[in-house]
TrEMBL record:
Domain VWFA: 361-559
Pfam families per the UniProt record, alphabetical: GBS104-like_Ig, SpaA, VWA
Stated name of the protein: LPXTG-domain-containing protein cell wall anchor domain
InterPro entries per UniProt: GBS104-like_Ig, Ig-like_fold, SpaA_PFL_dom_1, VWF_A, vWFA_dom_sf
Basic and acidic residues compositional bias, start-end: 224-237
Region called Disordered, residue ranges: 183-237
Top-rank taxon: Bacteria
Transmembrane segments: 979-998
Source organism of this protein record: Enterococcus canintestini
Alphabetic keyword roster: Membrane, Transmembrane, Transmembrane helix
């Protein structure tokens, strides 16, 4: 008897050990074989550099290694660190390891207990860089230590200051399980799971921090996760546990990806991709290159045509290459041919089937009640199941899938089951299993129980999933005998029912047409015959305080069955089809929805596996989506694509299409003008790809717009492939675009009738765009043309000032508006008012300032034509124009003659000045001097005897010279000079006589 008991006990020990080992493989951290593997934890990665720590538990000590890399772009720093035993608060004195590493020579341990630095490991000299060094040391075995690490800065002769300092609690546990050690560390605090803990204890322990299980992820993914954990710990203060295991109990749902970060350049020309390509024929858009299979470099393709049907170029691939990639993403833009400033944006997302999926058991649980005939819901179910099966069949992993089907209504009506079996055996049966006609009530609780019984009989290491479809409230349930608070239900929403059934009798109860139990019948489980009627609500024992509470409806027991299923590790995915209110139960449609949601699984990451179909046609889509969601690499994926600040979304341009593999299009909403495009619940499997397309226009009308500057079309655009890992986002490459500017010219013409330019000054002009004032432009004497001082000109002006004061040319001139229409710029108004000038617009870019005419006076200077000396004694009279009579000019007495003060000359008139008397000994002008003042005030004079009159108009006075020639004097009769006249006359007679004699002889032939 004792031997049997001993054997029985031994068997149970083996079973428990096997179960514990399975639990460890699925739920704990890194399984480290003693003396062979190390656990590594990220310490920091910042502007000072980066560091991590490794530790390995040995028989009687712990081996430690700090990996340190200083950045050489900071001032000199000194690295120090120390360890403290958390349990007894004692300083741990490390022992440095001497090997071929240089770190032992660089650091020293402070061993003097009398100093405050006792136990610290200190870098002997400050340094600007330590490149990938390893600091190795040992400590006694402890369960939990506090590591403090600091970088002290030192410049010149100043004392050292702490530049960076942080403490890291680290928990170490050595557990002997089949000669292996399980170690799990966290940032901030630690979660340690021993193989001896029960499942409930392990669950409780693991919730003390945020756990990220990386499965068999590659090193790049692990490094990225460490950095993300460090960041998250700093933000939340919650412990961040990073674990890895050979087998992930959640299968593909636990896989994370290291983000392949696009790289950008920001300089004077804007922000744009560092590794880029430009669509053929485009000049105003630039896109980020792709990366094949997570390679070490970008693809190097710098140009292609940007055809949206191209499914080869510029993808960033994750988890493999080309068709083997887990998923691939691409984003690019190209210029529209329809309008300037319009850009087409394309995002492609391609999925795949999970390569290393945990074998999965699926039970379809489908409502066959009479209401499923409405709107041919049962017909849509048949279509949906057909698509569901076809998707699984084409996945390439159907050999890892078992499937079954529970069709249910109410006792005595149509209820049937296909037992769980390999997919290939069930495939055709499931396609034809759904009836053409439905009938009866809704006994959801029993259907869920039957499905779970099927799953419980399957392999223990398979993932278990129930897919539930129902169009109404449960109208039957088992009678609850005890209930618990919904707050204690795992993976269940709390909003809805307050209690769930913890235990039930085998008695079937219900009204048959409502979930209400305010008066109910009992039913036979064999044939569904109605039994006794009970007038009141049933009651059940509340386990928390042993009181009895009223059970208001069939949801209590149905949710209770769902909770038991979830506690067993099965996921429940459910679809509520056109759900209405339950009037008899006093439940609105929203309250019904909340209770249906309580049946579904709420995952640890907060994802609720519940959806609604407001139309019967949504049933088929749900099935197709669910199949992909279960086996695809993109499961409940999400795209976040914010519109860039310099761009406007074109209303109603968003469209999503399947470009490969009949991918299902998720529901989406139209974004705001400057909003964000959010695509949720994206499911993509093998060979499936969607394309998101929309248009944006560059906002050239923004006051901060700069022509020919690269602006990013979007903000950071991310893709989350798995809804269960909402923080595991990867980046699309973000394209940039630009738009040209234009210039404006300004010409200022000056016209002074008096040629006096002293009244000129700097001028401000109003600049208008499409007849709307937008700014100010200045022109100054610095802009005077070299060949014409009467023209100021500014050409090809790119910027104007926003205001007159302060004047600062900062406003650029875009070529076109937000709709792609060319702007029309004009100099619309002269803002500076000049005294004595009149401003006139010649054209959109030319203005003329004409000096305002002032009636003129006249000043004539009488001069000797030979010597230039002033002559007195002349008289001048002016007439014509608007003068009523001839008027003598007044002599000043020095040879100048002016108009009387009460007389002026006006524009548009012609005057004549006649010399009435000349100075003695001088000849008088024969003709009058004509003075013409035209309509602009310009003055001209004419007289054939005045070749150089020196005409000027200054200070409103017309001034010119009248030179006079002296008269030739004749000698007196009998004077001494008469002989000269006689001599000259005689000589003239001789010359003339000789000439005539000579001609006479020649005419007669005399030689």
């Amino acid at each position: 008897m004792m031997r049997k008991r001993g054997l029985f006990f031994l068997v149970w020990i083996v079973v428990l050990l096997f179960s514990a080992q399975s639990f460890i493989n699925g739920m704990t951290a890194i399984a480290l074989t003693e003396d062979k593997e190390k656990n590594e934890q990220q310490l920091f990665d910042n502007e000072y550099g980066k560091a991590s720590i490794q530790y390995q538990i040995k028989e009687n000590h712990v081996d430690w290694q700090i990996n340190i890399h200083k950045n050489d772009n900071k001032e000199p720093t000194r690295l120090t660190y120390s360890l403290q035993d958390v349990k007894d608060k004692a300083v741990i004195l490390p022992t440095m390891v001497k090997d071929d590493q240089s770190s032992e020579n660089l650091f020293e341990v402070k061993t003097d207990k009398s100093i405050a630095d006792y136990g610290q490991v200190v870098e002997k000299e400050v340094s600007t860089a330590i490149k990938n060094d390893q600091i190795k040391f040992t400590t006694p075995v402890v369960s939990e230590v506090n590591l403090k690490i600091s970088l002290n800065t030192k410049t010149d002769d100043k004392a050292e200051e702490v530049g960076f300092s942080k403490e890291y609690p680290i928990t170490l546990v050595k557990a002997n399980v089949t000669e292996s050690t399980t170690i799990q560390s966290s940032l901030g605090s630690s979660t340690v799971e021993s193989t001896a803990t029960s499942s409930s204890e392990a669950t409780k322990e693991s919730t003390s921090g945020d756990v990220t299980n990386l499965g068999d992820a590659d090193e790049a993914t692990v490094d990225s996760a460490k950095k993300e954990a460090e960041k998250k710990y700093e933000e939340t203060g919650r412990p961040q546990v990073i674990t890895r295991s050979a087998a992930d109990s959640l299968g593909f749902a636990g896989r994370t990806y290291a983000n392949i970060e696009p790289q950008y350049i920001t300089d004077n020309s804007g922000t744009y991709p560092e590794y880029s390509w430009i669509p053929d024929g485009n000049t105003n858009v630039i896109n980020h290159q792709g990366k094949v299979g997570g390679g070490s470099s970008w693809d190097g393709i710098t140009s292609w045509d940007g055809n949206q049907n191209n499914k080869k170029n510029s993808y960033i691939e994750y988890g493999g290459t080309r068709a083997d990639a887990d998923f691939a993403i691409r984003k690019y833009a190209k210029e529209s041919t329809r309008s300037q400033g319009l850009y087409d944006v394309f995002l492609n997302i391609r999925g795949n089937v999970q390569k290393e999926i945990t074998p999965i058991d699926i039970m379809l649980v489908v409502d066959w009640s009479g209401s499923m005939n409405d709107n041919d819901r049962i017909g849509e179910v048949k279509k949906g199941i057909d698509q569901f099966v076809n998707t699984l069949a084409a996945s390439g992993i159907s050999d890892k899938i078992n499937i079954g089907y529970v069709g249910y209504s109410s006792p005595g009506y149509l209820n049937n089951t296909i037992n769980l079996m390999p997919f290939k055996d069930a495939q055709q049966r499931i396609k034809t299993f759904t009836p053409n006609k439905a009938s009866g009530g809704t006994f959801t609780e029993k259907a869920l129980r039957d499905a779970q019984n099927q799953l419980s009989n399957g392999a223990k290491d398979h993932k278990k999933v129930i897919v539930l479809l129902t169009d109404g409230v449960p109208t039957f349930s088992y009678k609850p005998s005890s209930v618990k608070s919904i707050a204690n239900a795992p993976k269940t929403l709390t909003e809805g029912e307050k209690y769930y059934a913890d235990d039930s009798e085998n008695t079937i109860i219900g009204q048959g047409n409502s979930s209400s139990l305010n008066g109910y019948y009992t039913y036979s489980p064999e044939n569904g015959n109605r039994g006794n009627y009970v007038k009141n609500y049933p009651t059940a024992k509340y386990s928390e305080n042993s009181t009895y509470v009223r059970v208001p409806n069939a949801f209590v027991a149905t949710i209770g069955q769902a909770v038991k299923i979830k506690e067993a590790g099965t996921e429940i995915h459910s679809l509520g089809i056109q759900l209405n209110s339950d009037v008899n139960a006093g439940l609105t449609s929203e309250q019904v929805q909340n209770r249906m949601k309580q049946i579904a699984t709420k995952s640890d990451s907060g994802v609720l596996y519940y959806e609604t179909a407001n139309k019967a046609s949504g049933i088929a889509n749900y099935f197709s989506n669910k199949a992909v969601q279960i086996i695809g690499t993109v499961s409940g994926g999400k795209v976040i694509d914010p519109i860039g600040k310099q761009f406007n979304y074109v209303t109603n341009s968003l469209e999503i299409t399947s470009v490969a593999g009949s991918a299902l299009i998720p529901n989406y909403t139209e974004p705001e003008k400057n909003g964000e495009i959010d695509i949720n619940n994206l499911n993509l499997g093998k060979g499936q790809e969607i394309q998101i397309h929309y248009q944006v226009r560059i906002n050239t009308e923004d006051e901060n717009f700069v022509p020919d500057k690269w602006y990013q079309i979007n903000g950071r655009t991310t893709f989350t492939p798995n809804q269960e890992l909402p923080d595991n986002m990867v980046d699309f490459g973000v394209p940039s675009a630009k738009a040209p500017g234009t210039t404006i010219d300004l010409t200022k013409k000056w016209d002074e009738f008096d040629n006096n330019i002293l009244g000129r000054s700097d001028l401000l002009f109003q600049v208008s765009r499409n007849e709307v004032p937008i700014g100010v432009l200045k022109i100054t004497s610095q802009n005077e043309k070299s060949d014409d001082k009467n023209i100021w000109s500014r050409e090809h002006v790119q910027k104007i000032s926003a205001a007159q004061l302060p004047y600062n040319e900062t406003i650029w001139l875009p070529k076109f508006d937000n709709q792609g229409n060319d702007f029309k710029y004009a100099i619309s108004k002269e803002l500076t008012e000049l005294t004595n000038y009149e401003s006139t617009k010649i054209d959109d870019n030319t203005w003329k300032n004409t000096k305002i005419f002032t009636p003129l006076s006249l000043k004539i200077t009488k001069k000797d034509s030979i010597t230039g000396s002033l002559l007195k004694g002349a008289e001048f009279a002016i007439s014509g124009g608007d003068l009523s009579e001839s008027t003598l000019l007044e002599s000043i007495g020095d040879g100048t003659y002016v108009l009387p003060k009460n007389i002026t000359l006006n524009k548009g008139k012609v005057y004549e000045v006649r010399e009435a008397k000349s100075p003695e000994g001088y000849r008088m002008l024969n003709d009058p001097i004509r003075i013409e003042i035209d309509a602009t005030g310009k003055v001209s004079i004419s007289n054939k005897e005045l070749s150089n009159a020196n005409l000027t108009v200054s200070d409103n006075v017309i001034t010119f010279d009248v030179p006079n020639k002296p008269k030739v004097p004749l000698p007196s009769t009998g004077g001494s000079g008469t002989w000269m006249y006689y001599l000259a006359g005689s000589l003239a007679l001789v010359v003339v006589g000789g000439y005539l004699f000579y001609r006479s002889r020649n005419s007669k032939g005399v030689a």
